[in-house]
Specification:
- Helix content is about 95%, strand content about 0%.
- About 0% of the residues are buried.
- Helix 1 packs antiparallel against helix 3 (about 120-225) and helix 2 packs across helix 3.
- The protein is mainly alpha-helical.
- The radius of gyration is 48 Å and the shape is rod-shaped.
């Protein structure tokens, strides 16, 4: 009777422990599911952040190349602008010399006298052609000046646009560089969070396995005592 009473008592204790262990295992499983969800969310955040980092790095790489090309173009255009200014000055000097010569010689009246003093139509036409040739030369000189002015104005506009493009690219590069630092810091934090959650999951899984083993052992002991 005494042995039977002790066995019944042990059976009741084991039954209660088994029930408690099963409830504890259920709680662990619930917590493990929550950890898995958190891990999945963090993993997704890490992937998204990594994609943003990759895009920003590509943007920096592309804009760095663009910036170098713009700076090269700008250097060439500035050299061309200097050359245009030099050509314009030379043509301008030639034009001023021509105007000075006309003023000093009183060429307007001289031309008229030159034409009127011609002997006959043939001589007049010959002298008229000579005057026209001089006039055409002056017109070409004036056209060269006008063309150079137009080229210089266009070059200044192009230089301004290129400089604006340079400034814009520099701002994008600066913004991307600052953004990249923030994204990399965020990525590092998220990766640490993911490692922590993975470790927590592994620990919970080990604990669940241990409890499950305990339940199995107690079930086996319960069965043996029952027999």
């Amino acid at each position: 009777e005494k042995q039977l009473a002790e066995t019944d008592k042990k059976l009741k204790e084991l039954g209660k422990e088994k029930k408690d262990a099963q409830e504890y295992l259920d709680v662990i499983d619930t917590k493990l599911d929550t950890l898995k969800q958190q891990y999945s969310i963090t993993q997704n955040e890490v992937e998204q952040t990594q994609n943003r980092v990759n895009k920003t790095e590509q943007s920096i790489k592309t804009n760095t190349i663009t910036l170098a090309n713009i700076e090269t173009d700008l250097t060439k255009m500035e050299a061309q602008a200097v050359e245009l200014e030099s050509d314009y000055k030379q043509i301008q000097d030639r034009y001023y010399q021509r105007m000075r010569a006309i003023y000093i010689s009183g060429e307007t009246e001289s031309v008229l006298s030159f034409l009127l003093s011609a002997n006959g139509i043939s001589s007049f036409l010959t002298r008229l052609e000579m005057v026209s040739a001089i006039s055409r030369r002056d017109s070409r000189l004036m056209k060269e000046i006008t063309d150079k002015i137009g080229q210089i104005q266009q070059m200044r506009t192009d230089l301004g646009n290129k400089q604006e493009e340079l400034n814009k690219t520099q701002k994008i590069l600066q913004s991307d560089t600052e953004s990249l630092k923030i994204q990399q810091a965020t990525l590092s934090v998220k990766e640490d969070e993911m490692k922590e959650k993975k470790t927590a999951m592994e620990n919970q899984q080990k604990e669940a396995n241990a409890v499950l083993q305990q339940i199995n052992d107690e079930t086996k002991e319960y069965s043996e005592l029952h027999d």
